[in-house]
Design a protein that fits this description.
Layout (H helix, E strand, L loop, with lengths): L18 H6 L4 E2 L3 E7 L5 E3 L2 E3 L5 H12 L1 E2 L3 E14 L2 E12 L2 E16 L2 H7 L5 E7 L6 H18 L8 E7 L2 E6 L2 H15 L2 E12 L4 E12 L7 E4 L2 E9 L2 E6 L5 E3 L1
Parallel strand pairs: 2-8, 9-13
Antiparallel strand pairs: 1-5, 2-3, 3-4, 6-7, 7-8, 9-11, 10-11, 12-13, 14-15, 15-16, 16-17
Helix pairs in contact: 4-5
Bound molecules: zinc ion (2 copies).
């Protein structure tokens, strides 16, 4: 085969020219001059292809991922390695050198490219909900035929704060938008329904009681085309508390455990454990 560029006769041509001519001006990759990345200014979530992701990866990984979507590698390139080196930061634009290494037809090729990365700071929908005081559910803490006492409320406040702390590591809608103290109990305004359900179950596991949910239609989200509901979750704690002494029929005992409507009692006469 005849190479039209250098006139040599070679066994095999690549893109119609010989290997040495081909390698002379081989381009490892075509990359854009600039890519843009959108980051939430509050929680560092990233917007990718129209969706927000709360990914725990470094900025460099995000840039590499975005670059990967916009890069065209030479079809002969193998074992390609891409490294980023930041050389300059100008306001919201970062300048990088992209080092690309790969083997083409058995030859190791290294090439550098310039890349500008524009960082757009925005607010993700979850942070904007949080900042506007948005809530999807209200947990109404109440007690059966009595008002919850301060000690109970304090320990439930702590339990809720603790749980929110844990859940919010994975779910940004885990927040209390407002806490309202009423004579008959406390209302907790919770960012998401899912979190509110979880919280009310956690509290119920500790203090017993009965949960009732009542969703109310609040309107319609025209852009998403769906009805908007807000849920009121009533958690009614039992009349009795753990360690209370009670007399029930023939049983005189001390409450040891409360779960839902079931109260476990240590019978002080027979020293047995019973449930009422
Ligand atoms: Zn040639
Ligand atoms: Zn955010």
């Amino acid at each position: 085969m005849f190479c039209p560029k250098c006139g040599k006769t070679e066994e095999k041509l690549f893109d119609n020219i010989c290997k040495s001519c081909f390698l002379e001006d081989v381009v490892l990759a075509e990359i854009p001059d600039q890519i843009e990345i959108t980051i939430c200014a509050h929680c560092e979530s990233r917007l990718e292809k129209g969706k927000w992701y709360n990914l725990e990866i470094s900025d460099e990984e995000v840039i590499l991922n975005t670059l990967n979507d916009h890069i065209t590698l030479n079809k002969y390139a193998q074992d390609v390695e891409i490294d980023l080196e930041m050389i300059l930061e100008r306001g919201s634009t970062l300048e990088f050198i992209v080092h690309i290494k790969g083997s083409v037809l058995g030859e190791l090729i290294e090439q550098d490219y310039k890349l500008n990365v524009k960082i757009n700071r925005n607010v993700c929908p979850e942070c904007s909900k949080y900042m506007s005081g948005y809530y999807e559910a209200v947990i109404q803490l109440r007690a059966d035929n009595r008002n919850p006492d301060q000690e109970e409320i304090n320990s439930i406040d702590m339990l809720i704060a603790d749980s929110i702390n844990k859940i919010s590591k994975k779910n940004k809608m885990a927040y209390i938008a407002e806490r309202a103290v009423l004579k008959e109990g406390v209302d907790y305004y919770v960012g998401s329904q899912k979190v509110a359900k979880r919280l009310s179950n956690i509290v119920k596991d500790h203090v017993g009681g009965v949960i009732k949910e009542s969703p109310r239609l609040m309107g319609r989200d025209k852009s998403a085309g769906k009805d908007l509901y807000r849920t009121w979750i009533s958690l009614r704690m039992p009349y009795f508390r753990v360690n209370d002494f009670i007399k029930y029929g023939n049983v005189l005992g001390q409450v040891t455990h409360i779960e839902g409507k079931r109260i476990s009692v240590h019978d002080l006469v027979s020293q047995n454990q019973t449930s009422i």
